[in-house]
Every structure is written in C-alpha cells, then in structure tokens.
Amino acid sequence: MALFQRGSARFSRTLRSLGYRDYRLLFFGTSLSHVGDFVQAMAQGWLVWTMTSSPFLLGLVGFAQALPRLLLGAVGGAIVDRIERRRLLLSTQVLAMAQAFCFWALVYFDQIQFWHVMGLVLFLGTVNTINQTARHSLINSLVPRAELMNAIALNSSMANMAKIIGPSLGGVLISVIGVAGCLFVNALSFLAIIATLMIMEIPAVKIKTEEEAPFWREVVEGYRFLRGERRVFSIILLTYGVALVGTPYTRFLPVFATDILHAGPSTFGLLLAAPGVGAVIAGLAIASLNRLRRRTHFVVMSVFAFSLSLILFSFSRSLPLSMFFLILVGGSNIAIRAVANGVVQMETPPHLLGRMLSLLFMDKGLWSFGTLLIGGIAHAIGTPRAIAVSGTLCALFASVLLYQQRQPRENLAAENLKRDMA
Predict the structure, then answer these.
(1) What are 220-229's pLDDT values in tens digits?
(2) Dihedral of the alpha carbons of 81, 21, 94, 337, in degrees to the nearest 10
(3) What dotted CATH number matches 16-199?
(4) Would you identify the CATH topology of the domain 228-405?
(5) Which is nearest to 392 in space by CA: 292, 307, 276, 312?
(6) Which residues contact 91 (CB under 8 A, 6 or more apart)?
(7) CA 376, 382, 384: angle at the middle one, nearest 5?
(8) pTM (global) more than 0.90
(9) Which residue in 45, 137, 320, 408 is a FRET match for 91, CA 20 to 30 A apart?
C-alpha cells in the first residue's frame, strides 16, 4: 500500500503542470491535433509514393515542409512577439485546417497532382513554423516559472507519443478509409485545439510600452539579443549541430532494416518507433524532476549520450540491440531539445521570447540539409560508417561547448588564486 502511495505521488509530481487549467486545455487539445498531423503525414507520404514511385520526389516533399523553418527564422518569431497569442494561434489553426480540407477535397475528387502537394506542404510548413513558436511561447504564461521545465517536458512527451500513435493509426486508416479519409480525419482534429483556445483564459503578455519599432528592426533586435547571451547562443548553436549531422539518421533506417538486418517493412516500423519510445520515457523522466541544475551541462551530457548511442547503433547487427540503442538515441535527443527549450524560455525576456524560440526551432530546417550531407558521406563510405561519423561529429560539437563553458570558470579560479596570493 505504501509503495502504491509513493508511486502515485511520483506520478502526480510528473503530471503536476496538468493541474493548471489552461495548460491542461492546451495539452489535450494539442495532443489530438498532433495525432491528426501524423496521420496526415503518413497518408501524404503514401500518396506521393503511389503517385510518383520516386524516392527523390518523396524526399523533396519532406525538404519543402522543413524549408520555411529556415527561411522564416526570427521573422516568424517577430510576428509572434507582435500579435496577441490567442488570436495568432487561432488564425494558424484555422489556416492549417483549411489546408487539410483542401488537401482532402483534391484527393477525394481525384484532382490531386504533385504540384498541388508541393504547394500545400509549403503553405502548411509556413503556418506550422509560426504556430509552433506561438504555442511554445504560450506555455511560458500558463504555468509558474518553477513548473516551466515540467510543462515543456510533458509537452515533448506528448508530441513524441503522437509520433507513435499517429503513424500506427494512419497505417490502419489508409487500408480502411483510404488517403482521403485520413486527410479528412486530420481536418476534423483541428476542431479540438480551436475549441480549447477559445475557452482558455490566456494572460496578457507584457510588451514594450515604447513606440512600436519597424518590423525589420525587431528582427535584428532578436539576433542582437542572441549574440549577447553567450549561454543561450551556445545551446542553440549546439542544437543546430545535432540537427545537421545527428538527427538525419532517421532517413536511413530503411537501409539498416533491409541491408544491415536483412529484414522487411515490419522491422523498419520497429526501428522507426523505438526512438519515439525513448523520447516519451525521457520526457516523463525530466518532468518528474523537482529541479534541474546546471542545465547547460545537462544538455552537453545528453549530446554525448546521443552520440555514443548513435555510434553503437551503427555497429549493431542485432534487431534487439539496434532497438535498444535507438531507444537511447530518442531519449537523449528529447533531453537535448526539452532542456534547451527550457533554458531559452527562462533566460529570454517575454517581449523577445517568440524570436528566440523561432531561432531555436530553425534546427528542424537544418535536418533536411543534413540528410543530403550524411547521404553523400554514406554514398562514399557506406551507411553504417556514415552514421558513426554523425555520432562522432555530435560528440565533437559537445566537447567544444564543454570547453567553452569551462574556460570562464578556470579564468575566474585563476584570478581568485592570484588575489589570495597577493
């Protein structure tokens, strides 16, 4: 009985941010919408493959969806910092729902063409870039500062759970109701987040009282703030490095399933799901912590864990071991992103938060370019060795940041020693 009570207490501590009504509404509304997003992603990939039978065009669609994250950058963040969050989120969700209904209609009436898909994907990528920044910046005002890391970690766990549920559900729905049916399900899923946004009581964010600056000056202000904040700048730069050379490993999992493990689609599905399992576990573990000290050090150590796990995966020739290492890869990756997100939110003034988060989320745009880079290395030396190189480069990036963090402390210690000797 006592063990059950202790377990219940720990679980309630893990979910403590859900005790705040408005965060709870955002959490559950976003959860349903995320599942719908991944159902559409699964159906979209299947549609493009059956339409074109071209791996290149399939990759081109993925690149187009990530491209707006790079092009918008702090521009999208400046938009988030200018417009009231509820109004902006409602607008982006309505636009995303309209895109889903348009996509459904084109497929249902058999009018869809590849250029339609590219246009719709670019549009959705632009909307989602602004929406993600606005949604994450909203979390900051829905929970107390002491619970911010818990709320971010829970949000990350939910997003990764949707990555497991959405594609699995999409695979079943495609065979039952077809691609058009999946797109219609996603369109309806937006009603949940729209309804919750309308009934939430969102606190007003304090914006600068002086006369509103020109838009481009606000964009530059975001970059200047980042340049002046050494710790935030270093962490964002590290996430860029991991995104560029580390996270593209997922694009090459089909190669490991067929050429390395000599298996088929079911094994590919297991490899694809394993990082999501690790991400959910890690997110809940971080949410369970009462306080996380030395967050920058934690991010660096998480990158080392990610690197080692990725290297071990590249050498594995056993399915159970490969899945185990991928679970560790997924867990350490979400630890990097969740804690980096927390550092940025805690050390950024409210009027600049949208711009800083938008810069942080640009790492997802680098993912597509990283796929081309690692693909070129894989072509030259083989996929397993290319993934080992990816892990090694990530460890190198983390080592550089760790060295930079130690330098000021060593200089301070030397100064104190000289002062004591004098």
Answers:
(1) 777 777 777 7
(2) 60
(3) 1.20.1250.20
(4) Growth Hormone; Chain: A; (1.20.1250)
(5) 307
(6) none
(7) 110
(8) no
(9) 45
